[in-house]
Inverse folding.
């Protein structure tokens, strides 16, 4: 059931990311919709599910994206892997504050890994699609703020839809959210 | 599988697979597969790109209604000016044709192009690239210039698959174009500036350049043919101590709403 819901959403977000998302840009900063969704999915469903869906989503996204193949997949996996680990060891219960921290860390990891991979691909394989640190750092703060807003919004929507409409509960073993 | 009960193990395995994909792609082993998949999904991407632009266009139309009167007035003035300029240019073309005929000069300023639809865009602020739905099958090769109608330069091809290609836009920081100010013939190098506009560097201090002057490709370095429109001078930045001056250029194309472009595959 969840696969039938998550897969189309992830595929849709991946294609929207490379086609429509520029229209949602604020101050030239384009939101990372798929990353935001995967953060919430990890918080709701747990670290293992988060990793598997990050792999699936990353694979779909990297096929659509003009970025060197698998670069986005690695960046998404790294971001979700790290927040999954921190979520269960450092942050614990999901609260607005911990969610803010996890989103900020995931966004920073995602951006840094992408810059590293782009420059690596440019250096070794001559793919001239490298990213510059100065531009990325300037935009990173704005992107983090944007992502936090997006994650909060999506999280509230998810909680409401999954509990009130679909009747889903969080996976056993995960600590309850303080939101609702 | 019991082995994957540990999330750490799962993470490591998935990461190794992803890194293996990245390396195999970099070595060119996965490129045919990736190219084939991109070719198959390109119509879906195109559908999304077009519908997104249509929806965004409608919203911006609604938001800009108040500004329309002002814009209409300035457009009317621009049309009058262009009519007058067009008339002068027609005279010059006629005169030029006569002169060419007189000296037997047979030169056609035209290019062979392949039309292409934009199927996806990079959403990274530091990487301005698009994907188009033509590739090696249509004769596209790396370093071919990409223009929109009327010879406005938008970028160059940096990666080619069987049925799709990646284009680095001129506003990307890594883009570098040998250009010349059309009126003064001042040479310089044009780079993208944070993916928003363009910067012309290495302009000799003694050159007098002014805002609104047109900048075109110079034809040097071999990638871009001469005469493609790059942008208009927006602001000139000078420093007494510097060897060269630089200028901010305003692009003449809306890079956020590119739909159809043309790959220059050769000269006629």
């Amino acid at each position: 059931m969840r696969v039938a819901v998550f897969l189309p959403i992830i595929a849709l977000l991946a294609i929207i990311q490379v086609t429509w998302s520029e229209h949602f840009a604020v101050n030239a900063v384009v939101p990372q919709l798929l990353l935001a969704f995967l953060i919430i999915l990890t918080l709701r469903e747990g670290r293992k599910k988060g990793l598997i869906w990050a792999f699936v989503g990353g694979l779909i996204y990297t096929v659509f994206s003009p970025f060197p193949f698998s670069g986005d997949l690695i960046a998404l996996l790294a971001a979700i892997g790290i927040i999954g680990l921190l979520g269960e060891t450092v942050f614990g219960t999901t609260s607005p504050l911990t969610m803010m921290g996890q989103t900020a860390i995931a966004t920073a990891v995602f951006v840094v890994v992408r810059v590293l991979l782009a420059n690596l691909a440019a250096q070794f394989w001559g793919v001239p699609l490298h990213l510059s640190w100065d531009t990325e750092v300037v935009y990173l703060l704005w992107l983090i703020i944007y992502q936090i807003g997006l994650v909060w919004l999506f999280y509230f929507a998810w909680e409401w839809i999954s509990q009130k409409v679909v009747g889903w509960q969080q996976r056993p073993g995960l600590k309850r959210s303080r939101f609702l | 599988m019991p082995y994957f009960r540990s999330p750490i193990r799962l993470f490591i395995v998935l990461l190794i697979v992803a890194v293996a994909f990245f390396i195999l792609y970099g070595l060119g082993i996965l490129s045919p597969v990736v190219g084939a998949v991109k070719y198959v999904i390109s119509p879906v991407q195109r559908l999304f790109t077009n519908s997104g632009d249509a929806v965004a266009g409608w919203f911006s139309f609604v938001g800009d209604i108040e500004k329309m009167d002002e814009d209409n007035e300035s457009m009317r003035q621009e049309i009058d000016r262009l009519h007058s300029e067009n008339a002068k240019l027609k005279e010059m073309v006629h005169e030029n044709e006569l002169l060419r005929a007189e000296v037997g000069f047979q030169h056609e300023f035209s290019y062979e192009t392949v039309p292409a639809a934009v199927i996806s865009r990079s959403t990274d602020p530091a990487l301005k690239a698009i994907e188009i739905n033509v590739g090696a099958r249509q004769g596209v090769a790396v370093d071919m210039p990409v223009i929109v109608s009327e010879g406005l330069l938008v970028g160059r091809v940096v990666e080619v698959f069987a049925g799709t290609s990646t284009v680095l836009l001129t506003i990307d920081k890594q883009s570098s174009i040998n250009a010349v100010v059309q009126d003064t013939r001042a040479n310089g190098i044009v780079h993208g500036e944070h993916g928003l506009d363009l910067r012309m560097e290495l302009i000799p201090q003694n050159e007098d350049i002014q805002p609104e002057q047109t900048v075109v490709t110079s034809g040097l370095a071999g990638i871009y043919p001469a005469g493609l429109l790059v942008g208009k001078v927006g602001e000139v930045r000078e420093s007494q101590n510097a060897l060269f001056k630089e200028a901010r250029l305003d692009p003449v194309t809306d890079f956020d709403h590119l739909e159809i472009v043309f790959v220059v595959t050769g000269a006629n």
Q: What stands out?
A: The CA atoms of residues 72 and 78 of chain B lie 10 Å apart. Chain B touches chain A through 49 residues (CB under 8 Å).
